[in-house]
Write a structure and sequence with these properties.
11 helices
């Protein structure tokens, strides 16, 4: 067996995973126009059920905050929950476990995707250096409206209702999406959060919204079925922070005190600009299961698990094109590279048509 440490069981919260290979959340835009998961999504996730844990893609907590061309899934309605239940049933039938990553796009949304509604964020600062796909083609990101302090309880309540729907759909738990420049991350990092008051300024204040959402998730699920993902270094979506290591340390310590199932940490920056030892900062403050993500090879992942640094490693783009990634890593087999042109396109091509090992 190759990379043997990845094939020992481990526990995250109250859940036992058969192996240490996690499928990272990958938004693929195969939901319908009402953000309801489709049958092909059940097939896609079931194909990948051998993962120790599947973290399903970023899923809208609250209606009217689309950021992915209008085809990302939601979990704010009973119809969406019922459709997600079919996904959960398909994965469970193959012995898999899955969490749902619950999300709000914040300033990464656009009015053309949301019936004219202006995006909201921590502060009125737009994403720069990129454009968003809309029904009228690619457009610059809009300047968001800063949420009022009095509006924030409504955001937390929207997440709470989403967590209830996720429970009704029979997920094994939920992951709070505090990464990659979306709403909760926009509050966390001082490059996008210039507000004053209880949700701005200090690291403690900037972390407040994320932690309120985590507490709402724990109130529905119990902390032992709640994971949290953060990306303190990632500059995607024009994000930055003046002290990502200190931010990581604070968030990790707060999650430690809450007893969450795991902390899912993106260790680097997609753009290669921001650097720092956020893994060391997290490990120093959080003694629970730490899941690493971003650019791990199977060999590096195995070493990190064997050393005790990480409980598991989440693989992203290789799960697009290797539905049997666990079996390939176990066998030391080559990994297929995905076709980026089909990441967000409709239909089976580049989605459910990648063959398993030996079936090509």
């Amino acid at each position: 067996m190759h990379n043997a440490s990845l094939f020992t069981p481990t526990t995250v919260g109250s859940l036992t995973l058969a192996n240490r290979i996690v499928m990272a959340p990958l938004t693929r835009c195969r939901a319908d126009a009402q953000h309801v998961p489709t049958e092909i999504m059940a097939e896609y996730y079931a194909q990948r059920a051998s993962a120790g844990l599947i973290v399903c893609e970023a899923t809208m907590a609250i209606e009217g905050h689309s950021a992915f061309g209008g085809r990302e899934p939601g979990i704010y309605s009973e119809a969406q929950a019922a459709a997600w239940k079919r996904v959960c049933d398909a994965v469970h039938a193959r012995g898999g476990k899955l969490f749902l990553q619950v999300w709000h796009g914040g300033r990464a949304c656009h009015s053309l995707l949301n019936n004219g509604a202006q995006p909201v964020s921590a502060s009125a600062i737009a994403i720069t250096g990129d454009e968003i796909h809309t029904p009228k083609g690619k457009k610059p990101y809009e300047t968001p409206r800063a949420l009022g302090d009095d509006e924030i309880p409504g955001i937390v309540e929207g997440f709470r209702k989403a967590f209830e729907h996720a429970r009704a759909a029979d997920f094994d738990g939920v992951e709070v999406h505090g990464a990659n420049g979306y709403l909760l991350d926009q509050f966390l990092r001082d490059g996008s959060n210039k507000r004053t008051g209880p949700y701005g300024g200090s690291i403690e204040n900037r972390s407040r919204l994320l932690l309120e959402v985590v507490d709402a998730a724990s109130g529905v699920w119990g902390a032992d079925r709640v994971g949290v993902r953060i990306s303190p270094l990632n500059s995607f979506n024009a994000m930055a922070d003046s002290d990502p290591v200190a931010l990581t340390r604070h968030v990790a310590a707060e999650l430690q005190s809450r007893g969450v199932a795991y902390l899912h940490l993106m260790r680097g920056d997609f753009m290669g600009v921001q650097k720092g030892d956020v893994v060391g900062a997290a490990r120093g403050a959080f003694t629970g299961p730490l899941i690493g993500n971003m650019g791990y090879s199977p060999a590096e992942a195995s070493e990190a698990v064997a050393s005790g640094l990480l409980a598991a490693v989440a693989f992203g783009h290789h799960y697009v094109s290797n539905p049997d990634l666990v079996e390939r890593i176990r066998a030391g087999a080559p990994l297929v590279e995905p076709n980026p042109g089909t990441f967000y396109s409709p239909g089976a091509k580049g989605y459910t048509d990648y063959p398993a090992l030996g079936a090509a």
